[in-house]
Please model this.
Amino acid sequence: MANTRPQKLSTNKSGSNSSSMALAAVALQDHMTRSLSLQDPFKKKKINHSLPTASKKRTTKAVVNRDAKDDQDKKEYVLDPKPPPLTLAQKLGLVEAPGLLLTDKEWKEVKKKSNERQDSSQPCVICKEDFGLQQQVLLSCSHVFHRTCLEAFEKFSGRKSCPMCRKEQYQRRIIHEGAKEYREKCATKIQSAWRGYIVRQWYKRLRQTVPPKDPKLRKKFYENKTVNLIEEAFVKETMLEDSH
Model:
């Protein structure tokens, strides 16, 4: 009797192991079927070969509220919807579960890391162009990209992973740090051009009023000034004669 008891325990252990393995297999299969697309990859898309019709011209002018548009452009918002319910594999710990949505405070910390590296002042790593006024996306891993570039990368790569650090299951948020940098650069260029114009006009007036110290230039300065005075006097005389 003592020899048969361990055999029952071993059979119970083997049965529990087989049931747990079966449960894990079912959970993984369920997770894969939910995460993978069930569309036929070899199915060709239908191309619309119909000719485009001419659209009617509208004479009405749209009234744009600039203040509301500016407020909307400056507002930051999250692109990702609420995460779907966890699958059985994620509940059992077989697959990494997506994290909870970041709070505003956590997003501020993520943006702070990106600003400390000055990512928004550098070109987008995908297209190698400045952010400008295009929509800029901040990921939960603190990397920034153009929204169109990131969506194109996700589409052609077939997975959702950061192009910089390859982190998966990231969250996205629209920010406007690149637009701020672009506006500051434009304002600096406009101010420098205006200051240059003012200085050139001031120097031009200075050359017309203050004689130079060089003898040749001084002689030419007085010659030009005399010619200008004679021309002004001649113009005044002709105007007086015409009036009489």
